[in-house]
Amino acid sequence: MHHRRSGGSPGVAIHLLGRPRIERDGVPLAPPRGRKTWALLTYLVLSERSPPRTRVASLLFSEAADPLGALRWTLADLRRTLGSPDAVQGDPLELRLGADVSVDVTGAAVLDGELLEGMTFPSSPVFDAWLGVMRRSLGGAARALAHHEAVAQLAAGNLDGATELATELVTRDPLDQPGQELLIRCLARSGRQADASRQLAECEALLIGELGITPGPELRLAAREPLARPGAAVGDAEAALAQLEAGEAALEAGAVEPGIEILRRACAEAAAAGDAGLESRALVTLGSALVHALRGRDEEGALRLHEALRLADGCGERHTAAVACRELGYIDTQAGRNASAGRWLSRATELSEGNDELCAVLGVRGMALSDRAYYGGALELLHKSVARADRCHRRRQAAWSLSLVGRAHLLRGDLALATTALDESLVLVAAERWTAFRPWPEALRAEASLLGGRRDEAANALDRTFRLACRLGDPCWEAMSVRLAGLIALDAGDVTTARDGFADAVVRVTRVSDAYAWVHAYVLDSAAALAVRTEASDAAQIVERLTALAERCGLREMVVRAHLHRAQLGHAESLEAAHLLAADIDNPALASLLPPVPA
After folding, report:
1. Residues 6+ apart with CB under 8 A from 252
2. Contact, 213 vs 510, CB < 8 A?
3. What is the predicted pLDDT for the residue at 111?
4. Whether this model's pTM surpasses 0.70
5. Cβ distance 204 to 164 under 8 Å?
6. Sign of torsion, CA 566 44 31 63?
7. 270-291 pLDDT, tens digit each
8. Is pLDDT at 505 greater than 90 in this prediction?
9. Among residues 368, 404, 269, 188, which one has the least CA distance to residue 180?
């Protein structure tokens, strides 16, 4: 939202969710004279930058004989409604709300109420398309915050509250696997084993029937979580510390499952010993391991991290709290839950100021901004992360952040900078023998080679990265590799192999419930582009899947790409919507994809 606050009337609340209205101290004010005034206010509140008058006039009043005149009348109506002659001024238009004016969409955390509920704008189809994007984006943010609250309540032991929120999430979106897993876990923890088993069966049948996806083991593990606790602990703090160190060593050596079981025992032993600081450290280590070492276990990992955070806050373990918040922000960033991710990462930044943990926090913040196509801010944070990691001798963190620097430059079409960053990342990966991470920068580096006209170099890298990704069993790494195979085939003119590769990539990335939303959208975009180009029978279906995912997760560049695909399928308003949405994205490569809007 881009507006400036100045002095104004006290206690004014603007409600754009649900039935739009404006209240002062709970008393409704006279509404605007027309629906377009609500549309104008909503657009100004949610625009990232102050828009030029000509753009707004074209967006809302293209059918009028005098669009700028119609805009002037609507601006006057908006100023009257807000009770301030200075509420909207200038060109570009700047919205100036009073210091005590609140707007519900800026902090929406409820599931009830659609943006401008019940309103449509058939005479302004491009605005209607933009409104649809905003509705789905805000709906996704509200679900993200509700999910966050449900996990927090579950970790705090409020089983009834957590179950109620999880039920609401599943009712709203039955195909959301993390929501289903959360509900199943809530039921199991509440001792409602029969209900948990019934929900599991219904969920598996739904996912297979609707999406053709066979759920992974995480749903079944959630249903039996209370039955899978470690054996009785004796309360020996020294034993707990030894188990924590042994678990970390096992993970470092690649013995993931044994390491996690040892860490579970460390958590139980520390809890029995009454050592909250040690228990919080063991829980944060276990939670991080579940998130990074095992695919499909992010929901359980988040629960352990919430538990760690509550203990760390209680005993002043600031560093442990920072790690827990950073990891929770990472989980939500990967899931496309940007509203809750932002909250976690803001707190992680505050907690990690002045210590080594900040380089990791900056890296995740850069990842979150890059996913949503805020490339300038992302690169600034990622370079700071690399610099701090170098000073702290955290070479794996430097490699991780450099890979994201390379991705940002790759997406923006700067192949030289992308290649440099990715090569530096791979050098550090090799030095650290970080095999589990190598497929990510290697797949991006190979794509840069392909785009630079070096197909053979890309193909050689593909062979290495695909075999390693399959050996690691990481669906996201596999999907990136198989997508690359499709791109190489397409570059060689083999459309059939390319189509099969993209389809395979989509299947692989959806194999687990905690797939990285950006990677999911990235492979869907490639599949959609080829399907549209070849007029495939499933083109519209693939495009709509990309559109829904990108809009729900706030992946701004992928939203633009989805609307470009929709425009090629005959949705004329989608081309103008793509131009409108791309105006706030600084990406020359994306701008080059935008054909001119027909007069």
Report:
1. none
2. yes
3. 54
4. yes
5. no
6. negative
7. 999 999 999 999 999 999 999 9
8. yes
9. 188
